[in-house]
Amino acid sequence: MLIPAKLICNYRLQNSVSRTSLLQYLDKSSDYPLVLIHAPAGYGKTTLVSQWVGHQKNVGWYSLDESDNQPGRFAAYFIAALQTALGQEIETDESLYIQKDLQTLFTQQLVKISAVTEHFYLIIDDYHIIDNEEIHEALKYWVRHQPTCMTLILISRSVPPLGIAGLHVQEQLLEINSHQLSFNHQESVEFFHSRFNESITPQEIASLCDEVEGWPTALQLISLSAKQKKLPLKDAAKRLAKLNNFHIYSYLSEEVFAQIDQDTKRFILRCSILRSMNETLVQQVTGELNGRNKLEAIEKQGLFLQQMNAEDNWWRFHPLFASFLTHYCQLELAEELAQLHGKAAIAWLKLGYTTEALYHAVQLEDHRILLNILSEQGWKLFHQGELKLLEQHLDYLDDMSFVQSPQLILLKAWLAQSQHRNAEVNDIFEHFDRVLADQKIQLSQGIQPEFDVLRAQVAINQGDERTALHLAIQALDHLSNTKHQTPNTNYAKIVATSVIGEAYHCQGNFTDALEMLQKAEKMAWKYHTPHNILWALLQQSEIFIAQGFTQAGYDILDKASAFVKEYHLQKVPMYEFLLRLKGQILWDWYNLDKAEAMANAGIKVLNKDEERLQCLALLCKISIVRGDLDNASRLLKQIIDLQKTHHYHQDWDANANQVKIVLWQMLGDVKSVEAWLVQTHRPINEKNHFNQVQWRNIARALILLEKYDEAEKILNRVIQTAQKLKLISDLNRALILRNRLYYLTGNKDAAQQDLIQALQLTRQTNFISVFVVEGETMAQQIRQLLQSNILDKLTVHKAQFILRNINQYYRHKFAHFDEQFVNNLISNPKVPELLKISPLTPREWQVLGLIYSGYSNEQISDELQVATTTIKSHIRNLYQKIGVSNRNEAIDYAKELLQLMGYR
Predict the structure, then answer these.
(1) Are the C-beta atoms of 537 and 498 separated by less than 8 Å?
(2) Distances from the Cα of 392 to the Cαs of 226, 370, 395, 883, in angstroms?
């Protein structure tokens, strides 16, 4: 829930000096994308903008405080202010943006407002509070792309890291600094004449202005001191002249606060513990029934209390004065502070502002209120994605607090698990077990199954599906039959059901796995746990993909993507998994550009470098299929470095190993293959997709090392298991690899049979890239198959499509006879004499290359954009020049030329 006070212009303008020249300067704002008003505290920055805003329309306002350093909260208020400027209804539920990637969210908003034509302004006050780099980067992105009809106005004590220098150079910035904001002599005269009837000359005021260097707050303090002490203005000024900024607290104490009556002083101090306040909060904290009247009276006295909006009745103290009051409270209200913070925590909680309630709760030495808030609201915050907020406040609790509320130690452990810190979960549980043993306390039978569910989740994450299945089944049985319900019971049931499904998946039991995961999804919808809905969808998609139903798997991922958008889950780590699964399918389908986009989007979701392994592996695969081996090698170096320094699940390692072996195969790096094979993990079975991947990795390595018998035994076993369990995607890949083995060992009939079967399976899987990655070895076999006329029409179409794509990225290696290649070839002393006597034209070289690459006359015609009759003429001429009589002889001739130049 958004605090209304933060979306309202903070200052009322009675007796304020009209800054005419600055207001005229600000009238130029519409010509600039960014206006920056920066100066130290007390220079009247917000007052100036408040004056200017009064004469503008289409304005949104956003006042910052420390809590706005969280990207989700910043997004919620930023969009609410934007909606205000555009006259739209404000969305007040900030939880909608908690898990949203800020830059992605800004992009969506930019699209939404792209059609706006009327100029509007968005003002952000106190931007110096922001120290979150993600917010800085997102706002920099916004400024670059915001519509021309928008001006963003930042009020700050410092220059923000938003590329200000570049905006200066490009004349895209309107700037007002402390020098411009300092009162000049005329403004100082106007300021004092509006407050004093005594005779004071303009020269005296000018001298006073010079002494304080035009600092407006200093002038205000002088004015207040003179009024309260009934001193001549000159005497009040002399008192201030002896001070400096470090003594502002003592000055406020002596010259402002000491002059207030005791009842008002105590009321102000009690209110000052609130970072913002309304009548309800003031009444709950101070006990004053006429709180609003008192606040209005204090505001009229000029005691640095600012009413933000008369309609919404929210107030806050000026930041300088609030800081002073915090210091003063420690002296004057030391015995009462705990009681006040306790009342404030409860009051904020009643209003629905849990974050503010937690702020006050942690000010107390007695953490009972904090314990109660976390016990009541902790799981709700967890499901809303407030992970950092929860961890921060759980850290305030001691061991006995967790003994008193074991649900919170479970929550703490889930926080660690949800952020992939599985080892930390065990540490938390082990420490808690020791605490329970020391206190001679046992967990109740009602909550123990919930701990077992989390242990099951950790076990499945670590690849121990047997332990996971045992713990999850046992826990689910207890949870389903117990009468003891906790806030986490339903969540635990969902997770247990999901883990059982995952364990069945790992064991190759797809039917039961799918049933359990669909059940988990249904439960998650019932109990409103979006993360579990998303996870169940992703697991179901993986099962369909493993069974070869890649389109069905992709359709589920599309459904999951829509769900992520609707529930603003773009920041959860699972979203990267979704993007990566989509990217893998797109890679399989040879949609490389979209696959690359998915991998890069996945990387942006992740916070830590070590989490990028899978996305880097996908990017490496894309580069390999494109034939960009330099970029693939660069990416592989990053992958190897990550595997050396971090421990990964065997699924992650298997996928990373896959790109290693394929790239080493293409580079002929036998030494690296030998070293890898010695130390690599050998799975205990082939019953799931990641074990199948790793066994294929081992088989490919053995083929590279020419250990064909051992490789064949592995592949036979992998294929047999894949056929038995209907792991169609893995079967498709394994047949292609065994085809390579048979082809290299001269078993051409067996190779052809595996290739035909693999091609037929693509009707279901739609695989392309897995064929393309095999390069020229695959291309030659497909050419022969096409010439043999033994394939059915559908398979012929697929084979031709695969061949075209192999040619597209491998032609530069195998059959692209460009000018440089031809020049090098002709200068080679071993070149056939006929080529020197009757050299081919550039077009004839192109045609020869395309013939070698498997193109038909019609395909060559399409490629070169000339008539088929012209192609036939070129073919006759080049056949005559190189001394061949048919297509097969031309292919052999081209192959000999490539071998002559060092191509395999």
Answers:
(1) no
(2) 46, 12, 6, 80
Could you say which DSSP state residue 157 is in? S
Query: Tokens 């085809």 identify what position?
Result: 739
Give the residue from 503, 424, 489 showing the smallest Cα distance to 457: 503
169-175: long-range contacts (C-beta < 8 A, 24 or more apart)? Answer: 172/32, 172/33, 172/34, 173/32, 173/34, 173/35, 173/36, 174/25, 174/26, 174/28, 174/29, 174/31, 174/32, 174/34, 174/35, 174/36, 175/35, 175/36, 175/37, 175/38
Provide φ and ψ at 34, rounded to 5°: -135, 135
38 forms bridges with which residues in the sheet?
156
3-state secondary structure of 12: coil
Distance CA 641, CA 664 (A): 16
Pairing of strands 305-309, 314-317: antiparallel
Phi-psi region of 195 (alpha: psi -120 to 50; beta: other; left: phi over 0): alpha
Tell me how far apart the terminal alpha carbons of the chain are, to the nearest angstrom.
66
CA distance 870 to 861: 8
Could you tell me the pLDDT band of residue 147, with boundaries at 50, 70 and 90?
very high
Cβ neighbours around 115 below 10 Å, total: 7
For residues 471 and 469, give the distance between their C-alpha atoms in angstroms, rounded to a whole number.
Answer: 6
3-state helix, strand, coil split of the chain in percent (to 5) is: 70, 5, 25
Spatial separation of the C-alpha atoms in residues 857 and 868, rounded to whole Å: 7
3-state secondary structure of 90: coil
Q: Is the Cβ–Cβ distance between 629 and 668 less than 8 Å?
A: no
- Residue 3: φ, ψ to 5°: -85, 115
Confidence bin at 218 (pLDDT 50/70/90): confident
Please list, in sequence order, all residues whose beta carbon lies within 8 angstroms of the beta carbon of residue 375, skipping any fewer than 6 positions away.
Answer: 405, 407, 408
Return the pLDDT at 248: 59
Grouping H, G, I as helix, E, B as strand and the rest as coil, residue 150 is strand
pLDDT band at 675 (very low <50, low <70, confident <90, very high): very high
Q: How many CA within 13 A on the CB side of residue 733?
A: 25
A 10 A CB-CB count for 287 gives: 11
Predicted confidence at residue 85, as pLDDT, reads 94
DSSP 18-46: P-HHHHHHHTTGGG-SEEEEE-STTS-HH
Q: Which long-range contacts (CB under 8 A, 24 or more apart) does 130-138 make?
A: 130/64, 130/68, 130/69, 130/74, 130/160, 131/69, 132/69, 132/70, 132/71, 132/74, 134/71, 134/102, 135/69, 135/71, 135/74, 135/102, 136/160, 136/161, 136/162, 137/103, 138/71, 138/102, 138/103, 138/106
**CA dist list (Å): 732 to 447, 460, 592, 607, 716:** 46, 27, 20, 35, 13
Contacts of 569 (CB under 8 A, 6+ apart): 99, 385, 530, 531, 534, 563, 575
Task: Return d(Cα 483, Cα 613) in angstroms, integer.
Answer: 44
DSSP 113: T
Name the one residue in this structure whose structure tokens are 């992105």: 141
Q: 534 and 571 in contact (C-beta within 8 Å)? A: no
**Can you tell me the distance from the alpha carbon of 737 to that of 772, in angstroms, rounded to the nearest whole number?**
12
pLDDT (average), residues 672-698:
92
pLDDT score for 607: 78
Percent of the chain residues past pLDDT 70, beyond the cut: 91
Average pLDDT, the chain: 87
For 55-110, how does the pLDDT look when each residue is reduced to its tens digit (9 = 90+)?
899 999 999 988 899 998 999 999 999 999 998 886 655 566 666 788 988 998 99
Q: How far is 395 from 416, CA to CA, in rounded Å?
A: 13
Taking residues 138-159, what's their average pLDDT? 92
Burial (CB < 10 A; 0-12, 13-18, 19+), residue 766, is middle
Which of 71, 89, 129 minimizes the C-alpha distance to 7?
Answer: 89
Length of the chain: 904
